[in-house]
Design a protein that fits this description.
The complex is a heterodimer. Chain A contains 22 helices and 27 strands. By secondary structure, chain B is an alpha/beta fold. Chain B folds into two domains: 2-130, 3-Layer(aba) Sandwich (Rossmann fold); 143-207, Winged helix-like DNA-binding domain superfamily/Winged helix DNA-binding domain (Arc Repressor Mutant, subunit A, Orthogonal Bundle). Chain B starts with 5 loop residues before the first strand and ends with a helix. The chains are: A alpha+beta, B alpha/beta.
């Protein structure tokens, strides 16, 4: 158009130029060589809103953007001097004050006319290029933005042409691929990467080119910090004609994500394992109260297979009476967020599939996922624990019952000695209440005179930890009397020996004490009685001894009388009978004489005795017992014994006692070995010693107690024989003792001082 | 009468033994004395009425033990016990075991002689009865087995007719067997036969 205009002006030379310019729709300015404006056309004036007068000379400059004025002037002047074409872009103010971009061009130079009336004039065309300018700026802006996106993307981004030459690669590409070159455009993978890597890239490129579609690849690359896994999305680039001219690629490094995924999977797996192997039932419930999850332990505890519980309301695991309560509480919680029970370790009752109710301990928590609450509970079957607790309680109860029913008074005290418990029997006995006996209150039951000693011994026991034992008079409520009791206590210690508690008993031994007293008082009497009893035991054999001759006497006498009555008593028969009667009578009187000497309660009458004689006398007395029990007597008597000064009867009594004991001791052994040995000799001190050895059962473990009054090994014995014998011997200045016989049996020996030694 | 009975005396005291023998001789009783139970047992049993005068206290075996010993040996001889100091339990035991008397030494002569007489009478009666039973048993054994059968049935109170039915024979046959049995048993009447057979059978039962 510009060319047209120029030609038009040239050809229409004669036409009125001004007219022509005025009618052109474009904005035209006619400038003089000094740069001043001769005139502007209407379009110009309309745009700027200024009059010709205002624009004449250099006034037109006011229409130019202040920043563009100097530049424009320079170029204009240069063009004037050189005469070269002129074209520049600048902003011009519109009538409303807005600046638009214009292309200012020298359109036509009109030479001066022949008359010299006119000078050289230049026609300048101003073309509004504002829209183009704006579009260009926008384009530039968008490119910068895109570039910024690409450059700052954490992904690798690149563009290649069909031949694999890089058209673009962003900063991440260079960083990741460790490419330092500033310009990689035009280079291929072969030049940038190891052969194998490049081959892989090129293969995928080919795939995209062939398919003509975006393709996703997972690729493994070795980077500075090791192996990386990436997802590469490659896509074809189409030109305006729909032809593929290149390949674009976006690579996302998923190494970190993979690692996180693995870590998350590990955590999840661990959690799953914990839940699945937990011995407690783990059950999750959603906010509708339906079970969403149950672990394998649920089967063991509730009897339900975990899968059959999914979707069921949690209430199936509760006994009927709890269901309503649970639902109300659950709804209230959802509505208000207020917890009404503890969420940690609450003991409740649960229901097994088989209908059995059992105690459980439940802990649960909540989690909000996708706006929904999920509740997970750990449910522990505590029936075993409960059972154990119950058993413990029962055992405690039994123990308590035992302490209350045992026919003993029991008490316990703190380590500091303060009484903290007395059983009912003790309370009943003393008439005190449980409160009254506490601390030192028990002393109220102790006799005034015993309180001091009792307290002292108890305090000593408490401080030393030694067992406590003390007799005291205790008040008995039943008869309002003080009775002798004994209290004993032992400390209970922990493993380190520290006293935890004292446990004590109280036993009423009043009756026993009285009996003991009575026993002591009658002991002396019994000693006398015993002597008579021993006589009584002998009476049977004595009677036999005496009755034998008496029987013979009466038989002979009666026979003679009968014969006399028949008048057939011959003198020879009578003589023989009388002889026998005399012999038997003598025999009887001898027996009687021995017994008289034995039984006579004469005061001690010491005479000089031959011990061997006494032994013979006693053997005669005991002959029947010896004979009856088939005991063999062996005598080892020393002939030349000194006389002793003693009471004959008492020595006889002692000896007889020892012989009878010996006979009894041998009842348990076989007949052939029943031998009793009597020995008399002089001991080292010159005393006369008599020993009675038996081959019986021996002294055994009781040797120490032989001489204790009332100790006896015989079913009917009194236990007085040996003590009395000893006291008799000792009253003669002698000794009586027992030793073991060899190979078995016992030896009882006594000594008596020889008569010569003691003043008579 | 002198040879018709014998008294055995066992006592460990020779004076007592001889005085007893002397006393018994005054009433015409013959006595044999022993110092121990063993020596008595060694003697052949007497075949004439006899009795035992025994001291309770014997060396070794006591009188009461000896009484039991005799019973186990099936020696039936009446015993008169003597004791130096008899007590009640001992005498009760002896009497329960069949003792005739329990006398405490020294005893009245008449008491002893009475006791010995009772003992001898008892032994004599027993011997007589034993002989009778032996006779009856001998007679009963002389019966044929069918006669024994019939006799047993008659004694049991059965009629001839019933016996015939039971044994499957004629009544007349039963009559003949019955009269033969009565004849052999020397029974004059049915009542006598019943007594005889009961007597003959009673000791048999005891023995078995």
């Amino acid at each position: 158009m510009t060319a047209d205009t120029q030609s038009a002006i040239r050809t229409s030379e004669p036409l009125d130029l001004q007219m022509l310019i005025e009618t052109i729709p474009a904005m035209v300015v006619c400038a003089l060589p000094d740069g001043s404006v001769e005139f502007t056309n209407r379009a110009w004036q309309e745009y700027t809103g200024g009059s010709l007068q205002q624009l004449r000379g250099s006034g037109w400059q006011t229409a130019i953007h202040p920043d563009d004025v100097s530049g424009f002037a320079e170029e204009w002047n240069a063009s004037l001097t050189s005469g070269k074409p002129f074209a520049t872009e600048m902003r011009m103010r519109r009538a409303d004050g807005q600046y638009h971009w214009f292309l200012i061009r020298k359109a036509l130079v009109i030479p001066p006319d022949q008359g010299g009336n006119s000078s050289l004039r230049t026609l300048i065309a101003c073309e509004d290029i504002n829209d183009r300018k704006q579009a260009e700026a926008k384009q530039r802006q968008s490119e910068i933005q895109l570039q910024a996106f690409f450059e700052n993307s954490p992904n690798v981004i690149f563009l290649k042409d069909r031949e694999g030459r890089y058209l673009y690669a962003n900063r991440e590409f260079k960083r990741v691929r460790r490419i330092t070159e500033e310009h990689i455009n035009g280079k291929t993978d072969d030049e940038l990467f190891p052969v194998e890597q490049a081959a892989t890239f090129q293969a995928s490129d080919r795939q995209v080119l062939e398919a003509g579609l975006p393709v996703e690849f997972e690729q493994v690359t070795i980077q500075k910090d090791g192996q990386h896994t990436s997802i590469a999305q490659k896509f074809p680039l189409f030109n305006a004609d729909g032809e593929i001219y290149g390949i674009g690629g976006i690579v996302t490094d998923i190494t970190e994500r993979k690692r996180e995924e693995a870590a998350r999977r590990y955590i999840e797996e661990s959690h799953r394992l914990i839940v699945e192997t937990a011995s407690d039932a783990v059950i999750s419930m959603d906010d509708t109260g339906a079970i969403r999850f149950a672990n394998p332990a649920t089967m063991r505890i509730f009897g339900y297979d975990p899968t059959e519980l999914i979707g069921k309301p949690l209430t199936v695991l509760m006994p009927e009476f709890m269901r309503k309560m649970h639902e109300t509480g659950f709804r209230r919680y959802l509505a208000t967020g207020q917890r009404h029970i503890s969420w940690q370790g609450t003991e409740l009752t649960a229901l097994r599939k088989n209908g059995e109710e059992f105690p459980v301990e439940i802990s649960f928590g909540e989690l909000t996922r996708d706006g929904h609450k999920v509740f997970t509970g750990f449910i522990r079957d505590i029936s075993t624990r409960k059972h154990a607790e119950e058993k413990l309680r029962a055992s405690e109860r039994t123990l308590r019952e035992l302490t209350e029913t045992i026919p003993q008074m029991l008490w316990s005290a703190e380590p500091d000695g303060a009484v903290d418990y007395c059983n009912q029997r003790a309370l009943d006995y003393t008439g005190l209440s449980a409160e009254q006996v506490r601390g030192a209150g028990w002393t109220k039951a102790v006799h005034r005179d015993d309180i001091e000693s009792m307290s002292r011994v108890w305090t000593a026991a408490v401080s030393s930890g030694e067992p406590f034992q003390q007799e005291f008079r205790c008040f008995r409520a039943a008869d309002r009397a003080y009775r002798w009791c004994i209290s004993r206590a032992l400390p209970l210690r922990d493993q380190s020996g520290r006293i935890l508690k004292w446990f004590g008993t109280v036993v009423d031994l009043h009756d026993w004490k009285e009996a003991q007293q009575a026993l002591r008082m009658t002991q002396a009497e019994l000693a006398r009685v015993s002597r008579l009893t021993t006589m009584g035991e002998l009476a049977a054999s004595i009677a036999h001894e005496v009755n034998q001759p008496l029987t013979a006497v009466t038989n002979n006498g009666s026979a003679c009388l009968r014969l006399l009555a028949n008048r057939s008593l011959e003198p020879e028969v009578l003589r023989r009978a009388l002889e026998e009667i005399v012999a038997d009578g003598t025999r009887a009187s001898a027996v009687i004489a021995r017994i008289r000497g034995f039984i006579k309660k004469a005061p001690t009458e010491k005479t000089e005795l031959d011990v061997n004689e006494v032994i013979q006398e006693v053997l005669a007395l005991a002959s029947h017992e010896l004979h009856k029990n088939q005991v063999l007597i062996e005598c080892q008597l020393t002939r030349t014994l000194p006389l002793v000064r003693a009471d004959r009867v008492q020595v006889q009594q002692v000896l007889l006692n020892l012989i009878m004991n010996g006979i009894e001791a041998m009842m348990g052994v076989i007949v052939d070995s029943r031998a009793l040995c009597l020995e008399s000799r002089i001991d080292q001190s010159g005393n006369v010693l008599v020993a009675v050895r038996d081959s019986g059962t021996g002294l055994g473990a009781e040797a120490d107690r032989l001489f204790t009054p009332f100790f006896t090994t015989k079913a009917n014995g009194m236990g007085m024989g040996l003590p009395i014998s000893r006291s008799l011997i000792e009253s003669h200045g002698g000794r009586l003792w027992a030793t073991a016989n060899s190979p078995h049996g016992a030896v009882f020996s006594f000594t008596l001082p020889a008569a010569g030694e003691s003043p008579s | 009468m002198t040879a018709a009975s014998l008294v055995f005396v066992i006592d460990d005291d020779p004076s007592v033994r001889s005085s007893l023998k002397f006393l018994l001789s005054t009433v015409g009783l013959q006595a044999e004395t022993f110092e121990s139970a063993d020596s008595f047992l060694r003697r052949k049993p007497a075949d004439i009425p006899s009795c035992l005068v025994l001291d309770v206290r014997l060396p070794g075996l006591s009188g009461l033990d000896f009484q039991r010993e005799l019973a186990t040996r099936n020696i039936c001889i009446p015993i008169v016990f003597l004791t130096g100091h008899g007590d009640i339990p001992m005498s009760v035991r002896a009497m329960k075991a069949g003792a005739v008397e329990f006398l405490t030494k020294p005893f009245r002569d008449q008491d002893l002689l009475d006791a010995v007489r009772v003992a001898l009478d008892r032994d004599r009666a027993k011997r007589k009865q034993d002989k009778e039973v032996a006779d009856l048993r001998q007679r009963f054994d002389s019966l044929t087995s069918r006669e024994q059968e019939v006799a047993s049935m008659v004694v049991a109170g059965m009629l001839n007719k019933q016996i015939a039915a039971e044994l499957g024979t004629a009544e007349s046959t039963v009559k003949v067997q019955r009269s033969r049995a009565m004849e052999k048993m020397h029974a004059a009447s049915l009542a006598e036969l019943i007594k005889m057979i009961e007597k003959a059978k009673a000791p048999l039962k005891e023995a078995s």
